[in-house]
Write a structure and sequence with these properties.
- This protein has three domains: 86 residues, Rossmann fold, CATH 3.40.50; 60 residues, Dna Ligase, domain 1 (2-Layer Sandwich), CATH 3.30.1490; 168 residues, 2-Layer Sandwich (D-amino Acid Aminotransferase, Chain A, domain 1), CATH 3.30.470.20.
- It has eleven helices and 17 strands.
- A hairpin with a 2-residue loop joins strand 11 and strand 12.
- The strands form three sheets. Strands 9, 10, 11, 12, 13, 14, 15, 16 and 17 form a nine-stranded antiparallel beta sheet that branches. A four-stranded parallel beta sheet has the order 3-2-1-4, with helices on both faces. A four-stranded antiparallel beta sheet has the order 5-8-6-7, with helices on both faces.
- Helix 1 crosses helix 10, helix 4 crosses helix 5 and helix 6 packs across helix 7.
- The protein is an alpha+beta fold.
- It is globular.
- It binds adenosine monophosphate (AMP).
Length: 357
Amino acid sequence: MSPLPPGSTLGILGGGQLGRMLALAAARLGFDVVILEPEPDCPAARVSAHVIATAYDDPEGLAELARLAHVVTFEFENVPAKALSLLAELGAETAPGARALATAQDRVIEKTFLNAVGAPTVAFAEADTASGAIEAVKRIGVPCLMKTRRDGYDGKGQAWVEHLANAEAVFHRLGDRPVIIEAPAAFVRELSIIAARSRAGEIAVYPIGENHHENGVLRRTLAPATASQAIIDQAERIAAQILTGLNYVGVMGIELFELEGGRLLVNEIAPRVHNTGHWTQDGCEVDQFEQHVRAVAGWPLGPTRAHTQIEMENLLGDEVETWVKLAAESDARLHLYGKREAKAGRKMGHINRPMPD
Ligand code: AMP
């Protein structure tokens, strides 16, 4: 595909805050944006030229998207695979492609792929039935973590199994669905790396972020994190193995565990812009959103070095109501998503604060 000229239209499946920030970045580069999202009053639609308010796999909605958009991307990984196959049948260009989406949607396929390309993970086993889950827990040992293979996010759809006798109950509690059983990662830190691959196969990697979660939800990211050259080299090698292995086009978030001694394991991959990459908006010249637009539009990638160390803090639920106070912080940059309702724990915005030298 030759580079899309400004004035072309970018299609985005999904209309949340990631779609909104992608749309804003796309607009700055001269693109129009069309959002396909069932909720017409969503954060992304309100900053975009067009909105198609249908289900993600609605054939008519997808046909209109294919007609309007020169390239289609997505902002969350639970887009039904059917949506991408229908778009492909309609001749629409999509990036990232169906393989990356299918890999990230299923934790067993994901970890099998990661190990195949040489990206290390915890040991794991899979099960579809209660008796299979007991066998898998026996094989991995306790304690271990049981997770649904699909549809988990922000720590949902997973539970620890402390004793073999509890394996069956945990399997039922997770909804009698296919699961993965993971060995515990004895991590000292949770890190992530945001990486991009262009249509030409060029790879660009941002500095590592250090992530802190509360109740399974990201609270803050500090980046660039303090990390030895050996850790940086490992993270960059892992990113290149994954992006090349998937023939990936776009930005990807890769969540990592740092073990005692500095070895890295991959926890999971997100085939999209990522919450742990929001720091790049105020820490780098070209942020992850512009980078993703550049990659999917066939443009050259931008620089990824950091000019400022940033602490990104998520604003969850009614924390966003302190916006006047936050806006008065002289150095900080406030990013609000325009969501109508501040439900408990909902990601309403974030704030990027430069760290003192
Ligand atoms: P996930 O939904 O896979 O990203 O998991 C959510 C959080 O659970 C991670 O950020 C870790 O804090 C923790 N976690 C996930 N998998 C493991 C594991 N195998 N061992 C230890 N902690 C884990």
